[in-house]
Amino acid sequence: MYQRPVDFGLLFSLFYFRYLGTSHHHPTAPSGESMPSAIAERRSQRIPLDVPLVIKGRNDGKHEFREETFTLSASAHGVLLALKNNVGLGQKLLLLNQKNWDELVGQVVYVGLPHAGLTRVGIEFEQASPEFWSLSAPPANWRQSH
What we know:
This protein is mostly beta strands.
């Protein structure tokens, strides 16, 4: 059974941006780490969501990896999660939702600075995919974002 590490810095970041933050600069990040400007112009609402995922890709574009992780937040268009493996902007990854075993390809659009062995990674889906999360009551604008 996978036991996820508790990283209070990541949890604080999620809380800050979800409930308090409008700034593009991460309040606890070392100098130089910024959130993408698109954060203020989301196509679908981002919600805090804890879903177990398997991520498949290539380290530095060479060595294949398979990593079990979890979401920090999600939307119909993408996800913010924590990874141990190094990935780069523009890299394609395969996401497998361990709750329903749906698969989805996404592209890395944000890579944070490493903290406690994990890195926050933002992944954008190729198309809006609200059904990937299997939510019984997704935000209203998720249904309109196809």
